Amino acid sequence: MEFLNTNLPYILAGISVGGQYALIAIGYTMVYGILRLINFAHGDIFMVAGFAMVYLSATLPLYISIPLTIIITVLLGFAVERMAYKPLRTAPRMSIMISAIGVSYLLQNCAWYITSGLAKQYPTIPWISESISIGTATTKIVTVITPILTIVLVIALVILIKYTKIGMAMRAMAKDFETSQLMGVKINSVISFTFIIGSFLAAIGSLLYFTNYATVTPIAGAMPGLKAFVAAVFGGIGSIPGAVIGAFIIGICENIIRMFGWTTFSDAFTFALLIIILVAKPTGLFGEKSTDKV
Amino acid sequence: MAENILHTEKLTMQFGGVVALYNLTIDVNEGEIVALIGPNGAGKTTAFNCITGVYEPTYGSVSFCGQTIVSNHPQGKMKKLYLGEKGKEKLKRITPTPDRITKLGIARTFQNIRLFDSLTVFENVLVAKHMRAKQNVLTATLRLNWREEKRAVEESMALLEEQDLLQYKDDLASSLPYGLQRRLEISRALATEPKLLLLDEPAAGMNPQETQELAEFIVKIKNKYDLTVFMIEHHMDLVMQISDRIYVLDFGKLIAHGTPSEVQRNQRVIDAYLGVADDA
Amino acid sequence: MNEKNRNINGVITPTEKANIFSNSLGFIKKNWIGFTLLASLYAIILVLEQVLPVSSMLFVVLKKGAIYALVAVSMNLCNGFTGLFSLGQAGFMLIGAYIYGIFTIPLEARAAVYQYFDGGIINFTVPVPVALIMAGLAAALFAYLIGLPVLRLKSDYLAIATLGFAEIIRAFFQWDKLGPVTNGSNLLRRFPVFSSTLYPFVVSSICITIIVLLINSSYGRAFKAIRDDEVAAEAMGINLAKHKQLSFTISSFFAGVGGALLAMYQTTVQAAPFKAAMTYEILLIVVIGGIGSVTGSVLSSFLFIACSEWWLRFLDSETYIGSFRIPLLASGFRKVVFSIIIMIIVLFYSQGIMGTNEISIDALLRFFKKLFRKGSKEEAT
Fold it and tell me: What is the CATH number of domain B1-97+194-280?
């Protein structure tokens, strides 16, 4: 109990950041499930959402700037898919991945150009930025809100995928891309929809994440993006519950490592975990095994 | 009695819930041409993949020239599922990778031609010589292996000349017409200096004329290189004409085996190919 | 640039190949034009160094371009010729840079460099060429160890795993506890650097020549076979694990040497800049040059560096014509333009400059002969 009391802030932070990773990880896992593409630009879309909020809230009230941020992020996700991935639908997988890296490079450089590379102060969103004390720890309300909001959104998403027509199309495409195309699934609109959902969740994630961290930089998206991807792999890529559980595990572990004073290794740990998982169980916690046909 | 060259023992392969191959026991003797036939999806290619080490069989073993090359006798559920009891033999797992099996002397072709598309015809054959050359990465880089390399080049040229492919040697493999790609794939397999050649539907997509030529070609290379040939084929003319013995698979199980004339008369084979009425 | 002529040394037919393999002297004889060109390139650089001021941007481009060319070609060996999508290049460069720095800082400078760590624990130095080779070997050793588990993974998992390893390496080198060796997150400096542009050129051209020799050897063919079709390559008796490991390790060796050269160029080393972004940059160079083309990688390295360090610099500075400020020009705009160009290449010219072709001396000769003949014909008519 003593241990818990002293370290509660770290664990709370872990759960909170885990929820934020989860929101990003879903975007990765859904896109990978359908296109077999690591969308390297996803982390940067998350970063752009942060900047959009910074610039919009400077002139507009929050009740307009928040929805507008989400809309801009969604449009960006949609545009990236249409412009950078759709033309390469039949190209080798390496080309699409390179295109994703190119988009990531482009978004980072654009952000750098617009901001002159300076870190921008993230606006304070009232209520969720306020302090709250849990047990012995004092933290922001956002820390508590994040996991709850994450779980609500994930449940909504799972329902969407399970019970709606477009959800069924997404599942079909994840199973077999060509066949579902033959069965009349409109692949382009389903893929766009997937990117829209992914970007929407990334936008929500960025609202929560940057409220916690207070500043946005052009490379702010890279690390959370990679970590969220690791979370997706950890949980078994293609599986939404897997991604969420993976994200929480990574968020918590990372903060426990900080707790022990090994801050230098908190990023490295995530990747070590990734490599262990890939070697021991390449399909992740909840992934399906597949055999290549010769 | 010719010596046994390939033997599979109760080879079983399961993909998830699908049993693609069940208790396949076959023998191929030295110098024979043996065919494996069966309707689509009968598990013929799966058998090849198990023999060459591409798949690890769920159960069973493969031996080549009396040496066990693939063996999987797992304990527990899988074994109970297929054999009902634990059996007395020692449980062991041997699975050399496909490259080691090729080095032992089993070469194969693929159902859907798998050439190295960005390499030239000549390089495709030369690649197959790579594993037999005495060299390491240092000697190869510094060209100290020039004797080996020269030998490989000469042998490959000879092989291409013999297969009438010499004129295409500098063309990209992918630019060859279909029939020549097939022939190149066989040449490439021959370049690995095999004792046993596995051909996976060598006559696929060929017209009767070409099939006839292929039959002669197979017999020719068999005699010239002292090969044993084990092939999967759908063209019955070809199969009946050149094979010494035939194995028939249906739904992963062996349903008949014998000389061409025996197999032709076998009722179960006819049923498998023509289908059998439910109320019969 | 002939389709069939895919060999950088100008080797065309197998019989000619056979001749070359028959003795190593033949190789030199055959490639005397290449060697002459290389020698004259060195001479030109020497002359330029005498003529132009030291601060000329040309030297920056030449130095950095040569280093990047080496790193890009080494990445191409792994990603382009063997089909292993590895993103660990920055990590291996970092190892090379650090190993070079650690073992060459003169003893008398150590107390100042390792001021927070009592002068460090390494009390000897090695000569520069030895340090360069050690840099490569250390990177290769790491790559070998990393390769054992990760090379079994499929393309995109391999990419993310190697990227992850690069991050781990970076964290490791910044670790305080390793400070006596790596100087923690502080700069390594005062190690020997090169003064002449010729230095990186010579080292880099030796390394690239070795890579080219490897690519054109029996092993190179095996690598290409693996790239084209793993299953068929295995059926041809090529040991996938061994050959992938070889390609990955050798590629990292040269990345390590490249890292050491970069350290010499920068005169200081710090772990922080060796991020994933650096790997991406090198990958994009490879893509622009053409995945699977050595000359393409070399060409695009120089182009890339020339554009980013020199030709497009003007985009970064605010410019006025009279009192009119040219719109858009501001710090960072160069990189935006750059990334747009890259996206255009990725999307519309996925073959890059060279595709999988090479500029070969033979092809160039034939080209000039043709040009010459055409010219003389025109004169005749």
Answer: 3.40.50.300
On whether residue A16 sits in a domain, the answer given is yes
How confident is the model over C188-225, as pLDDT tens digits? 888 888 888 889 999 999 999 999 999 999 999 999 99
Lowest mean pLDDT among A148-162, A215-229, B119-133, C11-25: C11-25
What ranges do the domains of chain C cover? 31-273
Domain coordinates in residue numbering, chain B: 1-97+194-280, 106-193
- Alpha carbon of A175: minimum distance to chain C alpha carbons (Å): 18
Indicate the pLDDT class of residue C380, thresholds 50, 70 and 90: low
Mean pLDDT over each residue of chain B, to the nearest integer? 85
What pLDDT is recorded for position B276?
Answer: 63
Answer yes or no: is A290 within a domain: no
ipTM of the predicted structure?
Answer: 0.87
Would you call C237 and B172 a contact, using CB atoms and an 8 Å cutoff? Answer: no
The domain in which residue A275 lies consists of 2-280
Average pLDDT over residues A201-208: 92
CB atoms C238 and B107 under 8 Å: no
Average of per-residue pLDDT across B107-128: 92
Can you tell me the mean pLDDT for C246-264? Answer: 96
What is the rounded distance in angstroms from the CA atom of residue B57 to the CA atom of residue B9? 11
How many domains does chain A fold into?
1
DSSP conformational letter for B120:
B
Residue A282 pLDDT > 80, yes or no?
no
* CB–CB contact B115 C239 (8 Å): no
| Residues C25, C78: Cα–Cα separation, whole Å | 29
By DSSP bridging, strand B196-200 and strand B228-232 are parallel
CATH number, domain containing residue A53: 1.10.3470
Q: Chains with ≥3 Cβ pairs under 8 A against C?
A: A, B
Question: Contact, C241 vs C234, CB < 8 A?
Answer: no
Please give the pLDDT value at position B90.
53
C133-155 as b/e: b if 16+ CB within 10 A: bbbbbbbbebbeebbeebbebeb
Could you please state the CATH topology (level 3) that the domain comprising B106-193 is classified under.
Answer: Rossmann fold (3.40.50)
Q: Residues of C with CB below 8 A from B99's CB?
A: 234-240
Query: From the CA of A283, how many Å to the nearest CA of chain C?
Result: 10
Specify the pLDDT at position B2: 67
What's the burial of C374, exposed, middle or buried (CB within 10 Å: 0-12/13-18/19+)?
Answer: exposed
What's residue C308's pLDDT? 84
Residue reference for tokens 């992918």: B174
Contacts of residue A132, defined as CB under 8 A and 6 or more positions apart, other chains included, come to A138, A139, A140, A141, A143, A144
Q: How far apart are CA B109 and CA C41, in angstroms?
A: 49
Please check whether the two domains, B1-97+194-280 and B106-193, share a CATH topology: yes
Whether the CB of A94 is below 8 Å from some CB of chain B: the reply is no
